Amino acid sequence: MQRYNFPYNYKPKISLEDTYLYSSYFYQYLINFFTKKYDAHLVVAPHATSFSKNIKSYSKNVREICFDNLNTNQIFLINQNVDTYLMSLSNIFKDKALICLNQTINRDAKLTNVDSIVNIDLHLEIPSLISHQTTKHFSNLILQIFADIIQVMCQNELLKIYQISSSKKTNKKYVCVGAQKIENDYPFFKLENAFDHFCSQSKKNVIVLDSLKQLKSENFFKQPNFVSQNLNASCSLYVFDNNSQKAINLIDITSRPSGQQAKDQLLKYNTVEFDQKIYDPGLFSSSRPQNTSIVIHCSNVLFYFLDKIHLAEVVKSVWTDDFIDFCEISKIKIM
Hints:
This protein is α+β, with helices and mostly antiparallel strands. It is built from 11 helices and 13 strands. It is globular.
């Protein structure tokens, strides 16, 4: 039972002020942890790029965009630009891990009281053997990354602010399933809703082994990047959140395609972009390293482990008076 998209009798377990403080510490510790673990270079992705010289993924629903400036003919924070940027850098920093914190703006998010418009992701680009770029290896790696996140959240400074639930921290029950199987088992569901239903029924953390090119649905729950993602080898970790009653994506892992594979995938799925020559030619080079990409969806991690429904990123002025009264009664602080 919900009211204004909040569960009945929902009470925040951590204050708004402590949420901000926890988030700030968490990002710092997470970057430091993985920088040290992989001996990684910290890089900053470009915030602006030209229409004519970079990938045209601004038409997709979920994209890293702040605003479109028609006067300058530029788009800011292009979706998936981070992936291709890190791949380009891998030509320079061969056999070296890269790390990047990036902000995603979902311009087409539903304007509800709980849906997040702003999300923070941590990108890791790590060298790996081709023989390790299998779904089996990725499923083991995703469990290790999950354990690393828990270790970061057990830092003393973070524990002083909020101690995450022991059931979430020690949950070692996992089930592996292919995205294609979920699609086949729930033919009348949108894929996103099918994930919610499967995760709620399994009562376990779900590792999804993606083979996106085999999916029948054209309405992908996550839009693949045909240049930077190997459609045959990727893996995602989902957890079911009882507060929101949704499956939450915490981690994505994929292998970078070879230069020839990236070219073949783009030719097959988006010939127009290939013909427009809007990609760095180095992305299709046979000498480009085929790294492993790890993306930690930090905002989702915070939502889940802090037992939150929202992180107060929505402007108060759009809310109705009765919703504001509801928040005051429920002691939910909003901006």
